[in-house]
Amino acid sequence: MLKVENLSLQFGKRILFDEANVFFAQGNCYGVIGANGAGKSTFLKILDGSKDANKGSVHIEPGKRMAVLKQDHFAYDEVRVIDAVMMGHEKLWSIMQEKDALYAKPDFNEADGIKSSELEAEFAEMGGWNAESEAASLLSGIGIRESDHNKLVRELNGSQKVKVLLAQALFGDPDILILDEPTNDLDIETVTWLENFLLDFKNTVIVVSHDRHFLDAVCTHTVDIDFAKINMYTGNYSFWYESSQLALQQKLAANKKNEEKRKEMKAFIDRFSANASKSKQATSRRKMLDKLNIEDIKPSSRKYPGIIFSQEREAGDQILNVNNLGFTQDGKTLFCDVEFTVNKGDKIAVLAKDGLASTAFYQILTGLMEPTEGSFTFGQTITTAYLPSENESFFSDEPMNLIDWLRQYSENKDEQYIRGFLGKMLFSGEEVYKMSNVLSGGEKVRCMISRMMMTYGNVLMLDEPTNHLDLESITAFNNSMINFPGTVIFTSHDHHFVQTVANRIIEITPNGMIDRLKTLDEYLEDASISQLRQEMYEGVLV
Predict the structure, then answer these.
(1) Contact at 8 Å (CB) between 142 and 182?
(2) Which residues of the chain have pLDDT under 50?
(3) In this predicted structure, what is the pLDDT of residue 462?
(4) Do residues 423 and 465 touch, judged by C-beta distance below 8 A?
């Protein structure tokens, strides 16, 4: 279907890939993983032809069509929403335009009639008569109301534009589908819809995503970019992660005999195969794992940050009381009638369909904004630590090296003390002298986590904590929240993060709130809650 041969790409002295050879077969979904900067997005651009490699080639089986998730959210602003979706099938759209132009000619002649007849035949063969209904079905499935289908794309908000571009990539049953971070800016319901769509998709999917639940749900194979090599492994992300960690442990246990290692790895594969029976792709994935050569599993060279949150003191019985809290911005109610008490042991996921609502909620609790109505009170023993979704204001002052940047937030000014927190977040050696104005998005978040760890808070508030982080940092952060003995109040689009951390769900809406002692999956699968959510959002949010 799609073959990569001897692929090499180098920027100056930095080598991204060296002599990479990979084959992508029909019917499989491949999750491309790698640390930030490893070249995941660049690899996808080479596959779709928008970027050239220094050496090597990409071969697509003749006659096969590739579709790519576009990243420019403004490219189709002057196009009708439904037309933007159909433009995803470039050849079909071209025929539609040519056909319509011929029929619009005032001097339509016999030659035009012959040409239009040929175009009609090709149009019908490509399923053109069903194109508009298929596009409308995709839009409705992905959460764009029928009343918006004939609007111009520029009339939609940012998250709706993302959905239109996703529908465009999915349109027309492409033979090869390339998706770079398709779950960004999507709500949980839309991500679930996309998972189900891809599970039923019969062709080839190649996807980059930091959403582990999504990768686990849809992927049959994992493509790992590491040390300038591209290696393919059978199984989804969790299988790759757990097997690579087991292989690393075995490598470190030098005295363990080979036969013991094989038995241990075989037991792991059997256990994972049994767990795969819960998946919609269980049959094919289990067959793949049964054929897996144990020697193919290699330890990962990834480095995981040491994210460890400690409490300076344990919280008392009074943690947080929220009374009738509400907030209106520019005449629009973001949330109202929010009232709850935080209890010991609570790890609360705050859900909101509008990201402005959850961000405003945290800014009110941290004293950065005043509520429109209501009040809240923290207990006397409480020390809070806050990780905002936007951190530019923390890096907008005069640039300074990372030691000096972190030192300004610490009572202990000792350099070794500061270096210790930076080192936990993988800033070691000369990297601590990096200037704060040249950091990547992921590096800034890691600095913010270092700052947060230094507060020794017993109540942590996190607004989209996994944004910009690579999978290694997300995994470490996830584990630290599971192990944290204090209270956590957080918002995240990472399904796995929420499912494994939260034991209580609070959803804030413009018409009130829902509060349940449930995990995320239990919350989403509860029919009575689904009905209540629909009623609360009815006519308020899309």
Answers:
(1) no
(2) 282-283, 540-542
(3) 98
(4) no
